[in-house]
Design brief:
Number of strands of chain A: 11
Oligomer: heterodimer
Number of helices of chain B: 0
Distance between the termini of chain A: 37 Å
Largest sheet of chain B: 6 strands, mixed
Distance between the termini of chain B: 41 Å
Order of helices and strands of chain B: EEEEEEEEEEE
Radius of gyration of chain A: 13 Å
Largest sheet of chain A: 7 strands, mixed
Largest interface: A-B, 23 and 23 residues
Radius of gyration of chain B: 14 Å
Number of helices of chain A: 0
Helix content of chain A: under 10%
């Protein structure tokens, strides 16, 4: 059974804190993605990675960075959290860059 | 550029049939996905169309017309558990491109 896991379901952080969101997949997929999902805006791609140590900006990369040191793990970093980064964050992986994506359960981040 | 349109909300009655439309304008096309997302949960895969026509899978069917840039998801014999958001996603031409998601259609099934 395919599995994408995320480190936390719910997270509360203060403005200015550095935040790490972790994602792990056990399907040996080359590609991994980070999205945020907000009411009325749908899924928006933040960053994606098509190989270890490779990363590409998505549609809304500002205020975020990523790290992919191992194939199975893709981390999203908020260098200095702000209230407008309060959102649901979804990680996904896929065998092909434009193919079916498998999603993790999501992390609901609140920045106060 | 990429543009995907879906209705924001739809309502239907238990046992009925509902059709959720998706129109797209993208710089390339390699296939179309439908995902289901229950509130507070991750999207889960429903269907994938790459050729024109209807793909049937139990109570759910998905249709594609590439010439019209149009797809629909058909849900039959609606159940309360079908209340969810339904996301249309287009797979662009191969290369360093990823899925483009629509904003989703919230379906509410009432008794």
């Amino acid at each position: 059974d395919v599995k994408v896991t995320q480190s936390s379901r719910y997270l509360v952080k203060r403005t200015g804190e550095k935040v790490f969101l972790e994602c792990v997949q056990d399907m040996d997929h080359e590609n991994m993605f980070w999205y945020r999902q907000d009411p009325g805006l749908g899924l928006r791609l933040i960053y994606f990675s098509y190989d270890v140590k490779m990363k590409e900006k998505g549609d809304i990369p500002e205020g975020y960075s990523v790290s992919r040191e191992k194939k199975e793990r893709f981390s999203l970093i908020l260098e200095s959290a702000s209230t407008n980064q309060t959102s649901m964050y979804l990680c996904a992986s896929s065998p092909g860059l434009a193919g079916e994506q498998y999603f993790g359960p999501g992390t609901r981040l609140t920045v106060t | 550029g990429q543009n995907i349109d879906q209705p924001t909300e739809m309502t239907a009655t238990e046992g009925a049939i509902v059709q959720i439309n998706c129109t797209y304008q993208t710089s390339g096309f390699n296939g179309l996905f439908w995902y289901q997302q229950h509130a507070g949960e991750a999207p889960t895969f429903l269907s994938y169309n790459v050729l024109d026509g209807l793909e049937e899978k139990g109570r759910f069917s998905s249709f594609l017309s590439r010439s019209k840039g149009y797809s629909y998801l058909l849900l039959k014999e609606l159940q309360m558990k079908d209340s969810a958001s339904y996301l249309c996603a287009v797979s662009p031409r191969a290369g360093y491109s990823t899925l483009t998601f629509g904003k989703g259609t919230m379906l509410l099934v009432s008794p």
